[in-house]
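Lecture 7, part 2: worked example. A protein chain together with adenine.
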Amino acid sequence: MRIDVLTLFPEFIDQCAAFGVVGRARERGLLDLRGWNPRDFAEGGYRKIDDRPFGGGPGMVMMVEPLRRCIRAAKQDAAAAVPVIYLSPQGRPLQQARVRELAALPRVILLCGRYEGVDERLLAAEVDEEISIGDYVLSGGELAAAVLVDAMARLQEGTLNDAESAVQDSFEDGLLDCPHYTHPVNHELGTVPEVLRSGNHAAIARWRRQQSLGRTWLRRPELLTELELSRTDRALLDEFRRWQEHPAGPDTD
Ligand code: ADE
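Predicted complex, written out as structure tokens:
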């Protein structure tokens, strides 16, 4: 997959993408990440990319032309249409299902705004989708772009070492992830649940599913209303809830 990021700070994206899973995806040739600076497409000695907002008010607005030229340049060698995504708090909240769809595309262009925003005419003409990473305001789109790059990179086939792990993640089936434990078994902070040490794979799978259901019910109950739970799942969740009410039962958090 190729991702072009348009930002006044291309080095920032480069840094974020140098480590961990994203770094590995790049090393393995699974992710081609390219930074573009709209300032390189601005005119005049000052390479001006922003100006004061019409109607007054604080801050500066990014101008149409440098961004438009930058987008055109990033698209130049594209064989097919490349969606342009603008990261902004006004966008649709990002969810794993959308990450999965985007990660399956051969190319996307991410546009990062700074200052008070981007001239609306550029957004209307050139941007296909606006995405927010949450209901809070960042000082620019770079961190949001880095979040999206990371989420897409780890889904590129061949990136994760354990092919299973992306499927087992939180949200892949609409539920939160179950708890995880490692050595030592006994610690002053607690003991690893017995079932996980039993070697009984069916019992372990059942426990994990129940914990996922229970955690989702406790922490993000609104997610459950969007799911059609099977009979088995409903029975597991009922049991979990009973244990919550009478906490002598198995480990919960
Ligand atoms: N830019 C500034 N805030 C943002 C947010 N919450 N999500 C995406 N892009 C942003």
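The pocket of adenine is lined by residues 87-89, 132-134, 136-138, 141, 144 (CB under 6 Å). Residues 2-153 form a domain with the Alpha/beta knot fold (CATH 3.40.1280.10). Keep this in mind for problem set question 3.
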